[in-house]
Write a structure and sequence with these properties.
The protein is mainly α and 197 residues long. It has one domain (6-175). It has seven helices and no strands.
Length: 197
């Protein structure tokens, strides 16, 4: 495996922060607006807090561009912890407050509405008992939230660890003296001197 230079690590960190920060900010911001439009204040609040996490990562990127390695990397790590924390709090709360009866009533209402639209009784076509529907709802609900929590832990937690591991290399890249050899103009040869005159 090729060892990356501090400058290469810095560029990779900045590229990752730009993509991740903007993706989170835009997606979560849109989710917050949609939740607000549907009157889901909790969903809107969660979307706003996750958006703050994305904006925090963008602020960290800006600090790195200003050669502030300490503050920039701290903001990048904090952004991941904000996003992971709020998603975990929301996900665990949802898992603890699963309402099977309410979910079954909503699902039956939706199936009845679709049955009326297509002109056939989907309950008969699907031949699902209340026990089958309850089992399906329970499995779907717990699987969805468990997946969200695991993916968030792996992605946001992994990214926070990645940023933390890159701190020293980023600091070194941002505090290293500039390479002036690349800025110096090469000495002209004898033929070039004559052409300049």
């Amino acid at each position: 495996m090729v060892k990356r230079t501090p400058k290469e690590i810095l560029h990779r960190v900045m590229r990752t922060a730009r993509l991740n920060g903007w993706s989170i900010a835009v997606f979560a911001g849109l989710c917050a607006l949609i939740s607000l439009a549907f009157g889901d204040l909790v969903g809107a609040f969660i979307g706003i807090v996750v958006t703050v996490g994305g904006v925090t990562e963008i602020r960290g990127l800006r600090r790195l561009k200003q050669h502030d390695a300490e503050r920039g990397m701290a903001l990048l790590i904090r952004a991941q912890l904000i996003v992971m924390g709020v998603i975990w709090v929301y996900g665990v709360e949802r898992l603890m407050s699963f309402d099977l009866e309410g979910s079954m009533a909503e699902l039956k209402s939706a199936i009845k509405m679709i049955s009326d639209l297509v002109g056939m009784n989907l309950f008969d076509v699907l031949s699902l008992s209340d026990q089958d529907i309850a089992q399906l709802l329970r499995i779907s609900f717990y699987s969805l939230y468990a997946t969200v929590l695991i993916v968030t832990l792996i992605y946001q937690g992994g990214l926070a660890l990645y940023y933390r591991r890159c701190r020293d290399a980023v600091r070194e890249a941002l505090t290293a003296p500039p390479d002036i050899s690349a800025l110096q103009r090469p000495r002209p040869t004898v033929g070039e001197d004559a052409m300049d005159n």
